[in-house]
Write a structure and sequence with these properties.
Distance between the termini: 29 Å
Shape: globular
CATH architecture: Beta Barrel
Radius of gyration: 25 Å
Structural class: mainly beta
Number of domains: 1
CATH superfamily: TonB-dependent receptor, beta-barrel domain
Largest sheet: 22 strands, antiparallel, barrel
CATH class: Mainly Beta
Helix content: under 10%
CATH topology: Maltoporin, Chain A
Length: 719
């Protein structure tokens, strides 16, 4: 076990804290927080002109899953990339990858999940306090990588408020279908000045089962091969509260191994040979499962706050993170490819005093990232990214009227070992308006102009990406036809433009004691939209310079069987810039028609296309869902059904995805004999009718349908 030392330290702390618990007062659970931590102006969800989802408390525990994308997949406007169940990343209003910023306590996660759907997001939701989703452009606070939205995972690993005594949570659960077993805890101990935090989690799961289906190789199967998960991690943190603020630091270690479904290089014969050779019997336990990722991340975070620091400012907030990330993709007990990222980030925000009735905040963000890749799947060269941004946001109340304004300027330099691009200057601005008709009703409008510098893989990619079964070719390259069906890859000297989004969002909110309704509609007009186009070629038709030719020849000899997937090579995906538009809606309803019974419903839809009429690829289908809930003394339960509509608005070389429906149910028990421990016993059932469903947004949709019938039982304790 790689985490032995850290785990022992955490368990020791937990033991001491448990002994102290006997002498402390009962802790009041304060997880039901509605303040948006992602905002520097202490907004609540009801005060925001921009649509916001906040998941916390029991709702978060019920939704918790292995990946962040799966955890949030049932929130209006949010979908999952669904790389089987091993790696899932959120999609907001049809946008994902480098357009959705994923942060942990306001700082970038520092992983490489934005560059490929097979790369896992390194946030852990089982120990999170709340998850905040800002739908639509959020570049003002978080930079050009947030042109589609922000996912902020909030935890208390650096306690920002005084802690007295002991408080925490513990969860254990087990599931059928993939034999998933997991456990987690988070714990805080303090005396009002000093506070100590620890958490840890562990998760084990085998390949998951599905209804019988025919994969893209024509085989009939009832499970997704190589979809196992083996993950563990832990954190230790501390903070000191002084009269005018606090300062703290935390250390996190994260270790994951997970299969890469569909990533078959045709090594079956080699595996047999290895099995017969002496010394291979005791190699890694996952070798027979096929290629897998071995991920490690170490992260140090700093946080502090200084209240009333100097004239003109109410508060100064500081956050910083140092992240060392790497993951290896291992085949036949050998490292085939290794990805690394070293990232440093600083955010400094000052909340200033009112200026002519406007309260606001100014901020500075500095972020550097050095990424490297080695091996046969190093489709992107070593790259360096440097970003600095300045922003200012203000707001004011005019009776029932609320106005938000903001502006940001950002400079980004992007370079590889072979090429340095001109510095990208990006300016973003927004204006929001919220009007309360009454205590129950409000409308909102949000206008935003956002610019995004391209990501490294969108520019410099030039190589095989076996996990997605594609050959990726970035904006920095172009194809020239040499002869019939033969193409030469050459550097592209055409200037690469920033992606520019002009978005309008309109919302309606109504709420009384028994009924809640929330509707948002949006229109997003994007100039120079960067997307990966399946151009109808395969990798065997491509040739580069002489060195590249030799390299490709060696790869073809080593992987002579990899063409079984595509009958002649990998599909070529070329990044292009086009003008596009995305529009749609999110609707959420809650009706409590008796003291015990209530009804929840939601629907969302995104239409995404080029402005010349062609559809954009991998856009999630429209959804309609409903759930009936019952609340009794000592227990509650719910049963719900979600319909995923047919997706026939497809990009080039995509196939139509059929409609399907999922029936889910859950029940929670609160036994009196465990009331002193704040215990909840729960049982969940997913896809109860065992329906076969394919996720249109997935790169491997034909080989990785949704999970079949699954039951989960667990216990959660809060103290």
């Amino acid at each position: 076990m790689k985490l032995n030392a850290l785990t022992l330290a955490l368990l020791a702390t937990s033991t001491v804290a448990h002994a102290q618990q006997q002498e402390e007062h009962e802790h009041i659970n304060d997880y039901e927080v509605i303040v948006i931590n992602a905002s520097p102006l202490d907004k609540t969800a009801l005060e925001s002109a921009q649509p916001v989802n906040i998941i916390s408390g029991d709702a978060l525990k019920q939704k918790n899953a292995h990946s962040l994308g799966e955890t949030l997949a049932m929130e209006p406007g949010i979908n999952n990339t669904h790389f089987a169940n091993v790696a899932g990343s959120p999609i907001i209003r049809g946008l994902g990858g480098p357009r959705v910023k994923i942060t942990q306590n306001g700082l970038d996660t520092g992983d490489v999940s934005r560059g490929g759907p097979d790369h896992a997001v390194t946030t852990e939701t089982s120990t999170a306090q709340q998850i905040e989703v800002l739908r639509g452009p959020a570049t003002l606070l978080y930079g050009s990588g947030a042109i589609g939205g922000v996912i902020n995972v909030v935890d208390n690993r650096i306690p920002s408020e005084p802690v007295y005594g002991i408080q925490g949570n513990a969860n254990v659960s087990a599931s059928t279908n993939n034999d998933n077993k997991e456990g987690s805890y988070d714990l805080q101990v303090g005396n009002g000045r000093w506070a100590l935090y620890t958490d840890a989690f562990i998760r084990r799961a085998n390949d998951y089962e599905t209804p019988s289906f025919t994969n893209d190789e024509g085989e009939t199967v009832d499970h997704v091969e190589n979809s196992f998960i083996d993950a563990q991690g832990g954190t230790i943190g501390a903070s000191y509260q002084f009269d005018d603020g606090f300062f703290g630091v935390s250390y996190q270690g994260l270790y994951q191994e997970y299969g890469i479904p569909g990533h078959d290089h045709g090594h079956g014969e080699e595996e047999d040979e290895h099995e017969e050779e002496p010394g291979h019997e005791d190699e890694h336990e996952h070798a027979e499962a096929g290629p897998y990722a071995d991920l490690e991340q170490e992260r140090i975070q700093f946080a502090g706050q200084w209240r009333n620091p100097f004239s003109g400012f109410n508060r100064l907030d500081f956050r910083a993170a140092l992240t060392d990330y790497q993951h290896q993709e291992i085949e036949d007990n050998f490292v085939a490819t290794q990805f690394e990222n070293e990232q440093k980030e600083i955010r400094l925000i000052g909340q200033h005093k009112e200026i002519a009735g406007w309260k606001g905040a100014v901020g500075w963000q500095w972020d550097i990232s050095d990424k490297a890749a080695f091996g046969e799947e190093a489709f992107t060269p070593n790259t360096s990214r440097r970003t600095q941004g300045l922003f200012w946001v203000v707001e004011q109340e005019f009776g029932s009227h609320h106005v938000d304004l903001g502006v940001r300027h950002e400079r980004t330099s992007l370079s590889s070992e072979e090429r340095k691009l001109d510095t990208f200057d990006a300016t973003s601005a927004s204006a929001g308006y919220l009007y309360h008709f009454s205590d129950h009703t409000s409308v909102s409008f949000n206008l935003s102009h956002a610019e995004r510098a391209p990501a490294a893989n969108e520019v410099f990619a030039n190589g095989n990406h076996f996990a997605t079964r594609t050959y990726e070719l970035g904006l920095g390259y172009e194809l020239h036809e040499e002869e019939l069906d033969e193409y030469h890859v050459e550097p592209n000297e055409v200037a690469i433009k920033t992606e520019t989004s002009n978005n309008i969002d309109a919302g309606f909110h109504y709420e009384n004691d028994s009924f809640h309704a929330n509707l948002n509609v949006f229109y997003n007009r994007v100039d120079d939209f960067i997307y990966d186009d399946f151009i109808g070629l395969n990798s065997e038709q491509l040739h580069g310079d002489e060195d590249h030719d030799h390299e490709e020849h060696a790869r073809e000899e080593e992987h002579e069987h990899e063409g079984e997937h595509d009958h002649g090579g990998l599909q070529v995906v070329q990044f292009k810039q086009v003008d596009a538009e995305l529009y749609g809606y999110e609707l959420e309803l809650d009706w409590k028609f008796t003291e015990q019974w209530s009804l929840h419903g939601f629907s969302d839809y995104t239409r995404a296309k080029q402005r010349d009429g062609d559809d954009l690829p991998r856009i999630p289908a429209q959804r309609i869902g409903t759930e009936v809930r019952y609340q009794a003394v000592g227990w509650d339960g719910a049963i719900g059904y979600t319909r995923y509509m047919e997706q026939d608005k497809i990009g080039q070389n995509e196939t139509v995805t059929d409609a399907y429906g999922l029936l889910n149910a859950r029940v929670n028990f609160y036994p009196e004999w465990l009331a002193n421990y704040g215990a909840t016993l729960y049982l969940k059932g997913e896809n109860l009718t065992d329906q076969l469903g394919f996720v249109h947004s997935s790169f491997i949709k034909d080989d990785a349908p949704v999970t079949g019938r699954r039951f989960q039982a667990g216990v959660s304790i809060s103290f």
